[in-house]
Each structure stands twice: as structure tokens, then as C-alpha cells.
Specification:
With about 325 residues, this protein is of the alpha/beta class. The protein folds into two domains: about 150 residues, Rossmann fold, CATH 3.40.50.10740; about 160 residues, Glucose Oxidase, domain 1 (3-Layer(bba) Sandwich). About 25% of the residues lie in helices and about 20% in strands. The protein contains nine helices and 16 strands.
Length: about 325
């Protein structure tokens, strides 16, 4: 396993680059982009949008060469201190072979996103050891109406602006899986908290993100070593009714790669719009594909496609303890400039 490379922390006055490695931009996104950028400016950050971020292309993403060019330019620019992603989508694995890996290793920077961006986060970590951040994006987090959730912002600031370990993580009091709109707040509901599918203790580097996306890296140079890691998985429930069958396939693939034989623990994110019966089946699949292993499994954790959400540092030491301290981040994820 590579030694983690921690990027320099953010400070007020820094410039953040906005890129779109996972999807084309559409005019309907304009208000979300404006709102998300305005919030980052409230944090004292300046915004620079990469040249191809606002490219539009019907049905498909912009060519991977353009998306990689944006990322390479952001890493090369000494004025850019962090790279935040516009939104999720797909096709990020096509970008990875086109990145300037030597430059990334020599000029580490904060990179943050989730969903399809998981391929970028895991690829950067697997190839260079760069610590990356599974957290909010411009259109899926920072553009929340009328303001981003306090819980979401709290963990962004704790992870990206401070070098100290954040320690014990706690669930928010409320959560939502309602679809966001740009002119009214989302309906919230009481948070039942996190729960154990299997008890125990574990410590190791956090690695993972979108289950659907992470397995696209299996068998490639961008698939990380899972030895002693705490795997994080989350999924989005689209309206096509295919979530459980998709999860079934992806968990089987993780099992067949040997990842479940190597990890020290498993963290499962909340899933949106599941009935109680569907959620029980979802959790039974996790137990089925990890049967015979002793590692602890913490489920219902607030990261991924529900809100508000944690920011999880990929490659940083964390621990699970079903008796004492459910989930903690045990070292700082960023360093002084």
C-alpha cells in the first residue's frame, strides 16, 4: 500500500478550480452552479471554472481528452489550491489513463466529489497515494436551497481547512432523500442514526465510495490495495427499480476480486427511497456476500446520495468500534501549506 500523500489545507483567499470529469453541462444547471459558487465565495474562496466544465454534448459526456485536460491544467496551475467537481454522471474511468500522474504526485491538491467521481478519487489514491475526499459537489451539496446544510459544511471545513484529526463522527439529527429543487427546501425527517450489521473493532485507511463506480476499476492499475482497509460503499436508488439487482451484481464482483478477504471493516451509506422491506433485503445482501468474515459493518451512515452528508478522506486512518466509539477519523487529512 502506498504511503498517503496529504494535500495542503485550504485557507481563506485560496482559489478552487471547478471541473466536470463525469458529465456534460446543461443550461438548466446554471442556477445551481451560481448558488454553489456563491456559497464557496462566502467561505472566502475564489472560483476558477476549467475551460471544458461548461461544455454541452447531447447524450454523452465531453470527450475524455477534454476532461483530462481540465484536470491536468488544474494540477499544473500554482494558483489552484483545490479541485471541486461539478456533479456526478459517468465515464470517469476513461479519463484516468490521460492524467499526468507525475505532476499529480509532485503537486498534490485537494480533490473532492462523490458518486461517479469515486473513480477519480480511488484512481488518484491507488496510483499516487494522494488523499482525496468523498464529499459534496457544486450541484449536489453546495447548491442546496436556500443554503447548504450546516452538517455538510461543518465536515467540509473540518476536513479541508484544519490539519488536526476530527475524531469521532456523529450522525445529523435530520436527513432527507427527497430530490432537491432550486426554489424550496427539501422535506426533512428524523434520523434513526447508524447501526451495526456486524459488531467488532477495526482500524485502517478509508477507501471507496459509489459501489457501482468503484468496481469499474477492478483489474486495472487504478484498483487499490484493500489489505487492512476500511471499505466505504454507497449507492443511489434510481426510479428504474434496478438497485437491488445491481447491488447484488456489484457485491458479487467485490467478493470475487478478493476485496472482502482483505478489508478490516465496512461502512455502508444510507440509500435513498428504499422501503423498509427493500432496505432489509439490501442489508441481507451485504451479509450474504461477506459471510464467513469477522470484520465489523456499520450501516446507515450519512454519506453519498442522501443529505446532509459527511466528507470522508480517502486514504486516511479511521476506526470502527461497536462498543466504544462507532466511527472516527484518527489523523488529519491535510497539511500546512
Amino acid at each position: 500500500m502506498l504511503k498517503p500523500i496529504k494535500p495542503p489545507k485550504l485557507t481563506r483567499g485560496d482559489t478552487v478550480g471547478i471541473v466536470s470529469p463525469a458529465s456534460a453541462y446543461f443550461p438548466a444547471h446554471a442556477s445551481g452552479l451560481q448558488q454553489g459558487a456563491a456559497y464557496l465565495e462566502e467561505l472566502g474562496l475564489h472560483i476558477q471554472i476549467a475551460p471544458h466544465t461548461l461544455d454541452q454534448r447531447e447524450h454523452l459526456n465531453p470527450p475524455p481528452q477534454h476532461r483530462a485536460e481540465d484536470l491536468n491544467q488544474m494540477f499544473a496551475d500554482p494558483n489552484i489550491k483545490a479541485i471541486f467537481c461539478l456533479s456526478g454522471g459517468g465515464g470517469v474511468n476513461a479519463v484516468l489513463p490521460l492524467l499526468d500522474w507525475e505532476q499529480i504526485q509532485e503537486k498534490p491538491k485537494i480533490v473532492m466529489g462523490y458518486s461517479a467521481i469515486t473513480a477519480l478519487l480511488m484512481g488518484l489514491y491507488a496510483k499516487t497515494g494522494l488523499v482525496t475526499f468523498h464529499g459534496p459537489m457544486i450541484l449536489n451539496g453546495f447548491s442546496e436551497y436556500p443554503q447548504p446544510f450546516v452538517y455538510t459544511c461543518q465536515w467540509v471545513e473540518q476536513m479541508l481547512f484544519k490539519t488536526e484529526p476530527v475524531g469521532k463522527l456523529e450522525p445529523p439529527a435530520e436527513w432527507t432523500d427527497a430530490y432537491p429543487v432550486d426554489n424550496e427546501p427539501r422535506a426533512m425527517k428524523s434520523n434513526p442514526g447508524w447501526h451495526w450489521l456486524r459488531t467488532g473493532t477495526a482500524s485502517g485507511p478509508l477507501i471507496g465510495g459509489s459501489l457501482r463506480t468503484q468496481v469499474t476499476l477492478a483489474g486495472t492499475p487504478y484498483w487499490p490495495s484493500w489489505q487492512g482497509a476500511i471499505m466505504c460503499i454507497e449507492a443511489v436508488n434510481f426510479s428504474d427499480g434496478q438497485l437491488l439487482s445491481t447491488v447484488d451484481e456489484r457485491l458479487a464482483q467485490c467478493q470475487q476480486t478478493g476485496a472482502f478477504d482483505q478489508i478490516a471493516g465496512l461502512i455502508v451509506g444510507k440509500i435513498n427511497n428504499l422501503s423498509e422491506e427493500e432496505n432489509k433485503l439490501f442489508e441481507s445482501l451485504i451479509l450474504e456476500y461477506t459471510a464467513g468474515r469477522q470484520f465489523p459493518i456499520l450501516a446507515g451512515v450519512d454519506f453519498g446520495h442522501t443529505a446532509p452528508r459527511l466528507t470522508l478522506p480517502i486514504g486516511i486512518q479511521a476506526s470502527l468500534d461497536s462498543e466504544q466509539n462507532p466511527f472516527s477519523i484518527d489523523e488529519g487529512a491535510v497539511v500546512e501549506n
